[in-house]
What does this fold into?
Amino acid sequence: MSVAFITHVDCSLHGAGIDHPERAQRLSAIQDALVENQLASVLAHYEAPLAEREFLNVVHAKDYVDTVYSITPAIDDVWLDPDTFMTAGSLTAALRAVGANTLAIDLLMNQEARQVFCAVRPPGHHAEHNRAMGFCLFNNVAVAAAYARMKYSVDRVAIIDFDVHHGNGTENIFQNEPDVLFCSLFQHPFYPHSDVNPQSKHIIKIPLKAGTKGGEYRNLFTSKCIPAIEKFEPQLILVSAGFDAHVEDDLAGLCLVDADYAWLAAEIKKLAESLCEGKVAFTLEGGYKLSALARSVSAVIKELIA
Ligand SMILES: [Zn+2]
It folds into this structure.
């Protein structure tokens, strides 16, 4: 079985013409790097389908989904919060981003792919049950988890979030669902200013001070995240893979380097292989310094195909 890479050209439609760090060039930088590093040729490439609305409604309030569908920006952009915009192509892009995630579940559960990487935008982990937030319209990874539970009767899903920002949306959606373990490492204090005290046993929060380097990060991942996931015994692992904790990323203050992302990917793959027949899907969240993003994603994919 191959490692699958899912994306769609429509993901570039979101935000065309807007000067914003979450921009279409993020995806082209990743794809260019995969070609340059001779990784593209060993991946199984898939186009993301458009997500079906019924699956959005499983994790998002119907009123919220209806609102996003009803916004049809023509000339002017529509801002849903101070950071989160919609342009003419945003709904299509967002539906491809969610669709990539449901396809990822189909490929893993039907044993058509060993692991999956979804290179999509807009990102998703800040999107809550009933609101857009922090560049995110729909919570891509949350829909994937809910879809796996609904369609394939997966009992326990673990979500690892290594984006530099706390995945408040994912926590909000699964706060009352103990069969979804959510483990998030994030800079604190920092946006989105989440409460760092866990609300329940299945919500693991690992706050990190600005300036934290890879060594301490790896130690905390090893001592807190790995044992929690092993104890939970997930049947599927999903990863909110943000690359904005990279030392070269200006949006935040953590100090990871490319090799730390390779290490994370190797550790997560090992966990998946020991707990759930290798089934793990990585989905792009943040990461705004194009060169660091492209190198780090390449490092992750290199570990997955190894
Ligand atoms: Zn982020």
Summary: The longest strand covers residues 180-187. The two ends are 12 Å apart (CA to CA). The mean pLDDT is 96.
